[in-house]
Amino acid sequence: MTVESVLFFPVVLMIVLSGFHLAALMHAHHVGSVAASRGASLMARSMASHGNVTRAVDEINRVTKEMGGVPFGGPKITESPTHFEVTVSLSSPQIVPFLPASVHRTATSAKELFIEEQDR
């Protein structure tokens, strides 16, 4: 009985700790997705003027902080002719050594096209 307990306990402990680690990663994924989506939405509406890029980065940081995320590095914002892409990187507690401890989430938003009345 004692030998079985000694062999069984580490397996059960690893399964429980892996569950906590995966829950923390899922939380980081959710926070990253929300923050990236919010930043991409603001970028698409603002058409990337300098002041609005700063506002979008501030909004990403605010959302991340309010939701309990831990960012590492700043958000990465890229622009193409048709859309904006925002990538947010977050860290997660390292509970189990062999599982990942960081999350990268990306959101894309199409640029708004403004057509004047006479061009419609």
- What string, H for helix and E for strand, traces the elements in order? HHEEEE
Tell me roughly what share of residues is in helical segments: 40-55%
Q: Tell me about the largest β-sheet.
A: 4 strands, antiparallel
Q: Calculate the terminal CA-CA distance, rounded to whole Å.
A: 82 Å
How many individual β-strands?
4
In terms of DSSP E residues, the strand content is 15-25%
Note the overall shape: elongated
Computed CA radius of gyration, to the nearest angstrom? 21 Å
Q: In terms of per-residue confidence, which ranges show pLDDT below 50 for 5 or more consecutive residues?
A: none
Structural classification: alpha+beta
The tally of helices reads 2
The figure for the number of domains is: 1
> How confident is the prediction overall: mean pLDDT?
88
Short description:
By secondary structure, the protein is an alpha+beta fold. The protein has one domain (2-111). The chain has helices spanning 2-46, 50-66, and strands at 70-71, 76-79, 83-91, 102-110.
Detailed description of the structure:
By secondary structure, the chain is of the alpha+beta class. α1 (2-46) runs antiparallel to α2. 20% of the residues are buried. The protein has one domain (2-111). The longest helix has 45 residues, at 2-46. It has helices at 2-46, 50-66; strands at 70-71, 76-79, 83-91, 102-110. Strands 1, 2, 3 and 4 form a 4-stranded antiparallel β-sheet that branches. The chain contains 2 helices and 4 strands; from the N terminus they run ααββββ.
